[in-house]
Design brief:
Blueprint (H helix, E strand, L loop, with lengths): L1 E4 L4 H11 L5 E3 L17 H16 L3 E10 L17 H19 L5 E12 L2 E14 L15 E3 L11 H7 L1 H16 L1
Parallel strand pairs: 1-2, 1-3
Antiparallel strand pairs: 3-4, 4-5, 5-6
Helix pairs in contact: 1-5, 4-5
This protein binds inosinic acid (IMP).
Inosinic acid binds next to strand 3.
């Protein structure tokens, strides 16, 4: 079975391949078919955005597509940045600063807060004309006060997963993938394909 991975992020494609190729599932990158159009993510949930991306890309490429949408939800910020995680500021340091500043503001108003958060990843699989399946993965943790670590990307330096002393940035990529929202959603895809293939 062959899928187009609807992402320009090579790390994500690598992770899809590592986990699903042993099951006989192949991935084609957008470059290999001459690129894919940007899909406007105008849904209100991760599920809607991942499904939109998968379906529109499948209609364009006339093949089966694997798409994901992910982000960080912080309880004390009413689940912001959520589906706006990538658009919360211009760059990663800016996004981290905005989240930490907003948490300080809430803390000033309410006193002690819990700083609980979760990363969410939703993977949608589609063929032209139809979304076939949607998988949701989550990982829970807390937002620390100062960024720590150099690995990973995005909000990794401020996310301390439950049960760990290291932030996502301080864990090795293998350690992160084994507990992450994306790893978790991919594992659900594996379970689905084991039954199906
Ligand atoms: P997208 O799913 O590629 O649209 O990414 C959503 C945004 O959520 C990213 O740009 C990051 O800011 C954030 N994000 C998603 N997954 C992670 C993660 O594993 N670590 C850190 N930030 C993440």
């Amino acid at each position: 079975m062959k899928f187009l991975a609807a992402t320009g992020n090579l790390h994500k494609i690598e992770e899809f391949r590592n986990i699903l190729e042993p099951l006989g599932i192949e991935f084609v990158s957008p470059n290999e078919i001459g690129g894919i159009p940007d899909v406007e993510e105008n849904g209100t949930t991760f599920e809607e955005n991942a499904s939109l991306k998968a379906l529109e890309t499948a209609n364009f490429a006339k093949m089966k597509v694997f798409a994901d949408d992910s982000g960080l939800e912080i309880e004390d910020l009413d689940n912001a940045p959520g589906i706006y995680s990538a658009r919360y500021a211009e760059d990663n340091p800016g996004r981290i600063k905005r989240v930490l500043d907003e948490l300080l503001e809430v803390e000033k108003k309410r006193g002690k807060i819990k700083r609980k958060a979760r990363f969410v990843c939703v993977i949608a699989i589609a063929e032209p004309g139809k979304v076939l399946q949607v998988f949701r993965g989550e990982v829970y943790g807390t937002i620390i006060r100062e960024p720590r670590g150099v690995g990973g990307f995005g909000y990794d330096p401020i996310f301390l997963p439950n049960g760990f002393e290291q932030t996502f940035s301080e864990l090795t990529p293998e350690q992160k993938d084994s507990i992450s929202h994306r790893g978790n959603a991919l594992q659900k895809a594996v379970d689905y394909f084991i039954v199906k293939v």
